Sequence to fold (154 residues):
Amino acid sequence: MAKVVDVAAYILSRKGPMTAMKLQKLVYYSQAWHLVWDEEPLFAEDIEAWANGPVVRELYKQHRQRWRLGQDETLGGDPSMLTDAERETVDIILDSYGDKPANWLSELTHREDPWKNARVREGLTDGQRGSAVIHQSDMFEYYDGLTSASAEEV
Fold:
């Protein structure tokens, strides 16, 4: 299993430069959809429901106080640590979400149940700082439900 910094390094190598916020959201969606498609986590680190959307604290520590990250930055990660299946997930996410602005991605996460549920569990209001963990089971259930709903429409 890759580490979150490995996933981040891979994303930057493919789609950088980008803002730190956008990187965090792409990492989040990579984890969410890998849970659905491969039924296992992409990385072990927790994702927290911060005021501006999902954030992996371990990744945040690597880019703290930096707004923009370059394509050649590794943030302490190694993109070659991803398996073929892990790279495939991230590539699909980059094809689907990679051209979206950071604020659009953040707003999208705010409308989705995993982020909202984590904040409600901790009693956090909109804009309030907090570190509520987004449960992987919530991510799986929500995003798997999206694929089930899409399949029923066809």
The chain has seven helices and five strands. The chain has a mean pLDDT of 95. The longest helix spans residues 20-38.
